[in-house]
């Protein structure tokens, strides 16, 4: 048996759900998902990734560039030569999107990082 308070809360939740569904029907996007969808990522050219062979770390806007820098030391299974090339792409994208990069070399990012046992 539901109390009056529970019924009011349920009605309020239903109204919110209907409003959200109505907004989605008019083409509104979900505000919580600011990243790329899987479909968007799969349509991207390989050159738009820091690591194009692995299709890791997209460089499509300033937020993705900052994320690529922050997660650079978490990418596994790539050689130092691939990291050099990826760092060049990240630096280029950072200039394009006006992102300030303090590290001069990608090796500076590994100080105290995940793969610092090199």
Give an overview of the whole structure.
With 118 residues, the chain is mostly helical. It has two domains: 1-33; 35-118, no CATH class. It has four helices and two strands, in the order ααββαα. It has helices spanning 4-25, 38-43, 62-70, 80-96; strands at residues 49-51, 56-58. The longest helix has 22 residues, at 4-25. The protein is elongated, with a radius of gyration of 21 Å. The relative contact order is 0.09.
Q: Enumerate the spans where pLDDT stays under 50 for 5 or more consecutive residues.
A: none
In which range does the helix fraction lie? Answer: 40-55%
Order of helices and strands: HHEEHH
Q: What is the β-strand count?
A: 2
Main beta sheet, described?
2 strands, antiparallel
Average residue-wise pLDDT: 83
Kindly provide the radius of gyration, computed on alpha-carbon positions and rounded to a whole number of angstroms.
21 Å
Class per helix and strand makeup:
mainly alpha
What's the domain count?
Answer: 2
> Alpha-carbon distance between the termini?
64 Å
Strand order of the largest sheet: 1-2
Number of helices: 4
Proportion of residues in extended strands? 5-15%
Shape: elongated
Keywords summarizing the entry:
single chain, mainly alpha, 118 residues, two-stranded antiparallel ribbon, 46% helix
